[in-house]
Inverse folding.
């Protein structure tokens, strides 16, 4: 079965075509700068890499160009468009409606639309991706995989805010995000540990950052909330901040809510602390003694340590912490700092193992420590393909 995975953003479409269940990537790529005069399409197969620069006025044109490449007599990987029978879409917000991967019907689309107000930057382009795929692949089954679904197992104590019932009934609660990544990585971790009931903490550190407490394979607490600016210090987002700061800025500085939102989501975090949002530059500056860069590293790793403490408490134990995403997979500096003076939690890393660069799953804990420290590369596209494949296989079994 061929599964095409689509992640449609406001001006881009990321795609990967999988042969399932073999999990073989047949082709992948990115259409970017949709709507701008100088769009780009990057296309890759196991054999070739190919880029085209052209104007891509809208998502439909972008996806049609991708189909042309997939069908291309020399660099293509399919011979007819109907070979793609199944399409898995990443949808950021599923609210409380979608607790699992769902086959897309008109009713499902209507519900995704209703959730636009909860994820105004993400759900609209995700929805566009679905409509465009329906047009370009009219014979294919369309499946939605939600970034929030994995966190729907969180107990009431973890997802409820202490506000009056009227507001809770409006759907104001913790939803969480990055769920596709946390699901994939926690699944791999439990497999690696050979213990489906292990108590683990997944630390997803990319431009966006989040942590999830996972027990018996389920998310039981998570650092992102109603929106995506809570918890960790991120590339440009502040993470946890006293709400009094927001009202102070609005009242004393006459800032509008848009200005405060912009400040806390686009100009804060590592960028606000150092002027750089890319961790590689910050590490480089810190190694040369830059005081602001060192402070930023200290603040972000201190925050992660605090959440490790909190999640160990709510799980009443800890078997492993798992680092993933751009920073978690690549930065031995951040991993080292997070694991410093954490022996009370049974966390200690082996410096030599931590220094090894690899794209494999690895255990970097010191010998005989109580808590494993793992590095597991995330793969959201593969998780979407797996989810899409399994919902269709289950449907075949039922019918
Ligand atoms: P996104 O959330 O956009 O998917 P990624 O998961 O790709 O982000 O992570 C991007 C972050 O990873 C950037 O801050 C980048 O600096 C960091 N990163 C990537 N490679 C390295 C590396 N070798 N060392 C340190 N940080 C890295």
């Amino acid at each position: 079965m061929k599964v095409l995975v689509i992640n449609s953003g406001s001006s881009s479409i990321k795609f990967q075509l999988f042969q399932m269940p073999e999990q073989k990537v047949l082709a992948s790529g990115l259409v970017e700068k949709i709507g701008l005069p100088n769009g780009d399409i990057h296309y890759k197969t196991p054999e070739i890499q190919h880029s085209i620069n052209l104007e891509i006025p809208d998502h439909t044109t972008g996806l049609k160009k991708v189909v042309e490449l997939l069908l291309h007599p020399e660099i293509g990987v399919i011979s007819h468009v109907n070979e793609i029978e199944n399409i898995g879409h990443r949808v950021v917000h599923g609210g409380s409606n979608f607790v699992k991967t769902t086959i897309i019907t008109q009713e499902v689309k209507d519900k995704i639309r209703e959730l636009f107000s909860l994820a105004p930057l993400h759900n609209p382009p995700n929805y566009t991706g679905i409509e465009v795929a329906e047009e370009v692949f009219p014979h294919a089954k369309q499946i939605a995989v939600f970034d929030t679904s994995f966190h729907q197992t969180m107990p009431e104590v973890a997802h409820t805010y202490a506000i009056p019932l009227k507001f809770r009934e409006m759907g104001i609660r913790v939803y969480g995000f990055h769920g596709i990544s946390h699901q994939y990585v926690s699944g791999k971790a439990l497999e690696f540990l050979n213990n489906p009931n292990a108590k683990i903490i997944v630390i997803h550190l990319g431009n966006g950052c989040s942590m999830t407490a996972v027990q018996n394979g389920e998310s039981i607490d998570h650092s992102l909330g109603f929106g995506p600016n809570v918890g960790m210090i991120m590339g440009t987002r502040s993470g946890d901040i006293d709400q009094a700061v927001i009202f102070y800025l609005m009242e004393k500085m006459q800032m509008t809510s848009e200005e405060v939102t912009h400040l806390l989501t686009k100009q804060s975090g590592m960028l606000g602390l150092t002027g750089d949002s890319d961790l590689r530059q910050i590490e480089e500056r810190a190694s040369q003694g830059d005081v602001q860069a060192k402070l930023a590293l200290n603040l972000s790793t201190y925050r992660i340590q605090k959440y490790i403490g909190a999640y160990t408490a709510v799980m009443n134990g800890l078997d492993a912490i798992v680092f993933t995403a751009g920073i978690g997979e690549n930065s031995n500096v951040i991993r080292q700092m997070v694991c410093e003076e954490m022996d009370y939690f049974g966390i200690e890393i082996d410096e030599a193992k931590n220094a090894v660069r690899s794209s494999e799953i690895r255990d970097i804990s010191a010998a005989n420590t109580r808590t494993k420290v793992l590095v597991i590369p995330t793969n959201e596209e593969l998780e979407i393909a797996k989810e899409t494949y399994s919902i269709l296989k289950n449907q075949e079994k039922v019918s």
Q: What stands out?
A: The pocket of adenosine-5'-diphosphate is lined by residues 206-208, 235, 278-280, 283, 325-327, 330-331 (CB under 6 Å). The radius of gyration is 22 Å. DSSP finds 15 helices and 14 strands in the chain.
